Amino acid sequence: MKDKQTFMMKGSFALLLFVILGYIVKFYPNMLIGFDQPIQTAIRGDLPDSLTFLFRTITHLIDIPVIITWVLIVAFIFYRKQWKLESYLMLGNLTLAGILIVTFKNIYQRPRPEIVHLVEEKGFSFPSGHSLAVTLMVGSLIVILSQRIKNTTWRKVVQILLSLYLVSVLVSRVYLGVHYPSDVIASLCVGLGVLFMEFPFYDKLRFQWRFKGKQK
């Protein structure tokens, strides 16, 4: 029970930060200029071609057709391995990410940054859809594989690699000029908030299903 309360508290705090950022974006957007601009300048630098290519490649792995494809493949593999709840978690969070992205963008309707965009994007800026999707989906993978990989060294390697990819996507959205840093931070808050609040229920149900022989 104590662990559940800890996770719920962390999730609530992350979601509260999102609400605060969203309120500022909606009613006092100029307050964020002093926060966003220095970070944009520091991340974008002189836009070297090699870095632009790298960040374009990284961010395209979370484009809608691509993320749907690899999540479906991963969910299918998990299901075939009798990791049924893990498969449902991936599919459920993919669906949830889509709903949250569309809902929040239409609520806040923040224009994208008025700087050079290095990739073509349409729609509103807040929150970052790519960042929210990668936080939920890669975060789900980190949770699942951290429980399933028994070797401590390999578990750490997988956690580090997935975390580095998650961070690289967040940075790429600012570097490519299609999001403000506050967009990305808000998305991270939502994704982490959801994952923290889901985990106690997912972990309990996973134990029950394994005990009853519904899955491995």
Automatic annotation (TrEMBL):
Keyword ATP-binding: no
Sequence intervals crossing the membrane: 12-33, 53-79, 88-108, 128-145, 157-178, 184-202
Domain of life: Bacteria
UniProt KW keywords: Membrane, Transmembrane, Transmembrane helix
Domain Phosphatidic acid phosphatase type 2/haloperoxidase: 87-199
Pfam families: PAP2 (PF01569)
Protein name, per record: Phosphatase PAP2 family protein
Source species of the chain: Streptococcus taonis
